[in-house]
């Protein structure tokens, strides 16, 4: 499938900015499930500082701004050819060791809720157990925009029974690690069947299974990834793979607007 993606992020301020530094992970890479046909990232109102690959092999850029103008605009867009691999991403060339994805983070620490969740899984085979885990999370954590925030942990989302794709991924990662699987967070895009325009990117999880490599699980939708998905970055949790993040110094009030389109 050939997907056309446009991701526009705009920061506006009510007064000049003393200093702002933004980290961008907005560049997809060709791999087992996708081929990047064309891609460009354009930044207005900020200066490109450096480009590099981070510890998880994500294409990363730093841009800075200070003073006027009062608007920073970041547009990432292009075309990606995707392939359905039945949810199996396989192995990649990342230098990050598997044990790194076995380690808890603040957002994916397993507590009583995750331990109870694991005890409810009855399937025998490895893949069957992970698919049952995904379906159970999908049933127990309702999709509810605004129910959680960037700092919500897996335990908190599971306890309140609602969240967004970020929370579904964190709960799956916390449980999979406790079950003995290296697990990681993936940020990217999903072409929806009935909605071209979106207000946020998508996220899902991967578990590393012996003999298969990385296998994908989107607990927010109760499925493994297919040709409707485009991956951008990976990490231990949301903080490692978030598309845009940064810091700002000064007293200027900030307003954020995001517009994403994903279409065939």
Automatic annotation (TrEMBL):
Alphabetized Pfam families for the sequence: Bact_transglu_N (PF08379), Transglut_core (PF01841)
InterPro entries on file: Bac_transglu_N (IPR013589), Papain-like_cys_pep_sf (IPR038765), Transglutaminase-like (IPR002931)
Superkingdom as given in the UniProt entry: Bacteria
Coiled coil: none
Residues covered by the Transglutaminase-like domain: 157-221
The protein's name: Transglutaminase family protein
